[in-house]
Hints:
By secondary structure, the chain is mostly helical. It has helices at residues 2-34, 41-48, 50-93, 96-122, 179-208, 220-226, 261-294, 300-313, 326-334, 339-347; strands spanning 137-139, 144-146, 151-153, 158-160, 165-167, 172-174, 234-236, 245-248, 254-256. The chain has 10 helices and 9 strands.
Amino acid sequence: MPRIRWRARRIASQIKHCVSMRVSYYKLVYSTFCYNSFMSWNLVVDTLTEPMFWLVDRVAKYLGPIMVVLVVMLITSVVVIFYTCLLPHLYNNRSLLTTVTMVIAGHWLLVNIVFHYFMAAFTDPGMPLQEIPEVVSICKKCIAPKPPRTHHCSICDRCILKMDHHCPWLNNCVGHFNHRYFFLFLFYLWMGTIYVSTNGYQLFKEHFYGMKNSPTYVFATTQFFYGYAPATKHRRLQVNGTYGRYESETIGQVYDHPEGSWYHHAVLYEFLICAAVAFALGALMLWHGRLVTRGETSIEIHINKKERKRLKKRGLVFKNPYSFGVYRNWQIFLGFNSKRSFISHVIFPSAHRPVDGNGLKWKMSTYHQPSHNI
Length: 374
């Protein structure tokens, strides 16, 4: 009996040893074919999520033209309603000088919005050339050298100089040569929404609350376009929820509003969409303004954050090499050196090239490091 137990233990040991050898063998084969010194869990996660990113990139690529058409249609609708509804209201309720001033300001905003949008959408953000003066890495997608601040866009399928992000509303990447156009489009569009919301708030309030706070209503549109008003003041008749009929206080006759119920819905649409866009654009503009102030892009802020943590563990302080101070950063970004150039390059539409080079080689700020950090 002891002999049988000894043989059973010996067989179990041999099986265990055989399994261990087989496992070691398969591990060796796997390492032989799949070994990579740069292997990490981040790379594993990126590989596993690659199909999902591929699907998102394809959808974004084909939705780009639709988003551009949508932006053009929204801006056009707001402009048309402003001309047909808000402008006559301003003309009949404010002085001529105020109306002319508001019209000039509105057209100045409109020209800047249209110019900067089309320049941001149709200007090539820039891509590396064959001969690069300074190479910092190799793009694993293009298998080509990359200059500083250059990143690969999976939607455009190419490397972009000083890439910030891919904007679906532009159907284009925001990079070195159109970054300024993108930001100024946000700024002027935000000012335009504030402009329309402010001038249309009183008319919106009258229509939204059903004229409860304003018992009289002037046929501003009729008088502006047709040169006459059926009556000076009219009281709203709320019959079956219709907003297109008014009764004269002096004559007692009932008139059908020449614009009908679309006028009411147009006023509500104008204010609500401009107010909502103003809040969204305000937050987005503050984010990009913060990046410009720090001399970073939307991609570099994450890279610099990791680098800042890495150097902090070593007792060092990270300094962004592309930041030259708040005022100088804005000067470089907007491309002005004086008040005169600020007016011609920022206040009015300008197609000037970036003043910080061709995007292949960048000037770097220098910092004096304290002796205890050396």
